[in-house]
Amino acid sequence: MLAAVLEAKWEPKKEYNLSEFENNNKKARAGSEVWRFPQLKIKEVSLPRIKDNQVLIKIKDCGICGSDMHICESKEDGYINYPGYTKFPIIIGHEFSGIVVERGSKVKDLDVGDMIVGDNMIWCGKCIACRNGFPTHCKNLEEFGFTLNGAFAEYIAINTKYC
Question: Of residues 32, 67, 74, 94, which has the active-site annotation?
């Protein structure tokens, strides 16, 4: 399938203190301090495989958010404009809707043909922030288009709780 894939060079600024997590996982808490020389390319990528609790969505629409622009832009020094949590290479796009075309064996609440809108923030539901009702402060937060492959593609695999 075709997808808009953003690539960038891992080159932390000297004054930026990388955490052990960031260094081991190549996920930057502050993307504008670590990722340099972003390049957006349309590429052929593999179709996502769903897990038992996921559905495969055929993307129908995906909005272009300001953060999509900032993650692709760079400052004079080559570092990306987006200051948030990032990992590259990544399929960008996080404001999406589509149609269920396949469902995992444990999916009971969605059927093939159902229309969905996807939540872009993937929260664990188990950490203190999630249990206190603040999933956007999740200790294990992931985000489509920033740390997980997003929806500027033909298909995306997503857990049903985020539909």
Answer: 67
